[in-house]
UniProtKB/TrEMBL annotation:
Cellular component GO terms, alphabetical: mitochondrial matrix
Subcellular location: Mitochondrion matrix
The protein's name: Enoyl-CoA delta isomerase 1, mitochondrial
Keyword annotations of the record: Acetylation, Fatty acid metabolism, Isomerase, Lipid metabolism, Mitochondrion, Transit peptide
Reactions it catalyzes: (3Z)-octenoyl-CoA = (2E)-octenoyl-CoA; (3Z)-dodecenoyl-CoA = (2E)-dodecenoyl-CoA; (2E)-tetradecenoyl-CoA = (3Z)-tetradecenoyl-CoA; (3Z)-decenoyl-CoA = (2E)-decenoyl-CoA
Amino acid sequence: MMRSKFLSLLIRAPSVCRSMSTATKLTTIDVNDKTGIATLTLNRSPINALNVELLQDLNESIKEIEDNKSRGLILTSSNDKVFSAGLDLNEMYRPDKDRARLLWIKLQDVWLALYSCDLPTAAAINGYAPAGGCLLATVCEYRVMLPKCRIGFNETQLGIVPPIFCMFNFLNVLPRRVAERSLSQGQMFTTEQALQIGLVDDVVSSKGEALDKCTKFIDTFAKVNPLARSLAKQQFRAADLQRFQTERAKDLESFLAFINHPQMQEGLGIYLNSLKKKQQLNAV
Ligand SMILES: CCCC/C=C\CC(=O)SCCNC(=O)CCNC(=O)[C@H](O)C(C)(C)COP(=O)(O)OP(=O)(O)OC[C@H]1O[C@@H](n2cnc3c(N)ncnc32)[C@H](O)[C@@H]1OP(=O)(O)O
């Protein structure tokens, strides 16, 4: 009797979120004790620009979530307007050589960790997701987005060649023709356009709803054998992962050569300035 009462209490217990990590500052992890799903939140003010430290924290958090045998990983942002502004342009403009190298290696590591993640992954895109932000969203297996945002790889608009891993992400999500065109044009899509072309799976009106949708997606795997699911995912991604490993070193050198080019530096300087000017204009 006592035992069944205890069990029914356990069953009815409200879901409790527990923070798994205190070591990191730029990301937080909350594990829902009821669902076993970990929410990984980008938390670098003001716009989650991906610098060396944020990428490092992301890598550590992904590993922590995998090691703790969570049932799934949801990626989101603590900012209610920006999911991630992409790579921190300050790391690329007049760069410190060692940090620039580290930046790219860490970005490659994050992509690799998520692309080959054993767990089901989902992105609750609660704000703008340009470039590196789009990379983080599209490396996941499911995406839900809030209205009035934008998402896409705008690299070519900035004179940057998108690396192959952007292509892998888009080819997993979009028809080849759409992927090629949008990557080569540097297109940014509104939430509505993103839904229409299949770049996001769903649109919801609040972050809470977005997290619920992601949870539901991860729950669709509840009755599937975890090893079989994980190996099936790896099988689909094996050729991309193989090509990535073959080209990884070359990809790093291309990035470094590219950002050290005087023309590229001039362009980055103008772009960074225009972003700052935008704020000055808003203040007037
Ligand atoms: C992915 C594969 C790798 C390929 C290589 C590189 C790709 C990249 O990721 S390059 C980065 C591309 N990112 C962008 O083009 C985004 C530019 N930013 C924006 O469009 C807007 O800032 C954004 C919509 C994200 C947010 O808009 P707001 O909320 O209105 O904020 P502000 O624009 O006022 O920005 C606040 C503050 O941040 C500075 N900022 C913006 N983006 C970046 C960035 N990517 N890196 C560094 N700093 C950034 C902006 O200048 C403002 O600075 P202050 O004026 O000093 O406050």
